Amino acid sequence: MDKIHKLQIFADYFQLWLEDRQTSSTQREFLYTDQHISDRVWVDYGIVVMFTARNMTVPVELAILEAEPPIDLDKWDHVTETSLDIPSGQVEICGCGGFDSLMLPLQTGTYRVRMYHRGLASLSEDGLDGDDHYQIDLWFDSTIKTKVLKRWTETQ
Questions:
Q1: DSSP secondary structure letter of residue 37
Q2: Which end of the chain, N or C, is less packed with Cβ atoms under 10 Å?
């Protein structure tokens, strides 16, 4: 049965983390490139970092799904897909550094992660306010290479 969690997460350093409970983000070296920022995603074993448009509390919808959902790219500004290994059977979603953390039990294994961004052009001039919204869909699947399904550019 699909489960949807509606959250408000402080995206410190413009980041939302989705990570396996067993992995330790404190022992990682986060080496982001301009390409990661443009793709709005960085991936390592047991962790996916989603880059947001604001360094503020943002609305996030996390959906744990039984199967791959249909996709309507026209509803979103930016969409990426990747894989996440969850060997512990627990996944945590939080802002960078553990802000607003939610821990969820899942079947151990590999999951597809589809990340959606909307409202990226709605930010105020100072970048503090906006109608940006983020959605993350997770479903049990095989490993894939990270890919951008729809790319946002600042000129949109």
A1: H
A2: N
